[in-house]
Amino acid sequence: MKRYQALVILPLIFLMACQPDNGSIRPNVNHDGEYIKPDKKAAELNTQLGLSYLQRGEYETALDKLEKALKQDPNSSSAHHTIAILYDNLGEVEQAEYHYRRAVDIAPKYSQAQNNYGVFLCKQGKYGDSIERFLIAIENPLYRNPDQAYENAGLCAQQIPDVAMAEQYLRTALQMNPRLGKALLGMAEISYQQGDYATSQTYIDRYRTVAQWTPNALLQAIRTARRMNDENAVASYIVLLRGRFPDSDQAKQISGGY
Predict the structure, then answer these.
(1) Nearest alpha carbon to residue 50 among 17, 83, 75
(2) What does the pLDDT read at residue 38?
(3) What mean pLDDT do residues 131-158 have?
(4) Left if phi > 0, otherwise alpha if psi is -120 to 50, otherwise beta: which for 138?
(5) Which range is least confidently modeled, 33-42, 81-90, 121-130?
(6) By C-alpha distance, which of 116, 88, 89 is closest to 16?
């Protein structure tokens, strides 16, 4: 069965004022070796503008603002983090990894950057490094979203695959926040794989109350309902899948008899 792989970078990035690690700060010099006095206020403003344009999908303007921010303050962890997400969205893997790394090297306690770097690494198949980033994020007692980091760690562990690790992290995430849709779907998959179809159905039912249907979620719902001998539910889910996501791989799987 195709595993659920939708690790998503949070659409709203919390830019945090972090105390940088002095060992990671680089001198502010230009290409000619001349000292540049950092303008932190201007850099922060351009970072916020870049973030705003990024969230609106205006990538070219966002890139311009973020490049200006990094010229004004090359050691701005927020600017590195935001431009890393931009490059990630553009598929510029090397650039994205460089700036994610700079962001967390400058400010190791910048937990949102650690989390997003972990998401990036998991997409690259670097599962061990990815989970390490999520755990670093969680270690910060001031981090506001440890439930999401646990959820991401569990989803990444599923891709290793390490079912025991995935279950541990997903359960912890759901203890913190019972409304995490991806964690609920991940647990539905794990329960299904373990042959516990009734529990899988319970997780699907919970998922329906907190999240929008996705092709993967509907495919899991169809398979679970089939195992539960609920043909009415199977038919209903198939109609939803074909109606909402007619061109998806999951809809094609259904047409092929799954």
Answers:
(1) 83
(2) 83
(3) 98
(4) alpha
(5) 33-42
(6) 116
